[in-house]
Amino acid sequence: MTSGKSRASVLSDVPTVAEAGIAGYEASLWVSLVMPSATSPAIIARLNREVNDILNSAEGKEALVAQGLEPEPGPPGAVTERIRSDIEKWRGVVAKAGIKAE
Which residues contact residue 61 at a Cβ distance below 8 angstroms, ignoring those fewer than 6 apart? Predict the structure, then answer.
């Protein structure tokens, strides 16, 4: 089984954990570029455009998929929302499980 929301391209015959019977299960790793909040919006826009061009290119997609990664090009705000969403999700998991820092 795979743990993402959807099946991995390189393992299209392998079901997700949710498909195998644990409804709503999703735990995935992701990679992104981040920079200081004081970074110029022009620099952020340029870097985002360049990275999206690579992620949308056939060569870029093939290289990432061959490594088991699924490219997700998008606006800088999508990364911000993903970080916020993951913090809330995992904060809830930690609280429900009663996990404490040592």
Answer: 55, 71
* pLDDT in the model for residue 16: 84
Cα atoms found within 13 Å of the Cα of residue 78, Cβ hemisphere only: 10
Q: Assign 3-class secondary structure to the chain.
A: CECCCCCCHHHCCCCECCCCCCCCCCCCCCCCCCCCCCCCHHHHHHHHHHHHHHHHCHHHHHHHHHCCCCCCCCCHHHHHHHHHHHHHHHHHHHHHHCCCCC
pTM, rounded to two decimals: 0.74
- CB neighbour burial string for 44-81, b if at least 16 within 10 angstroms, e if fewer: eeeebeebbeeeeeeebbeebeeeebebebeebeebee
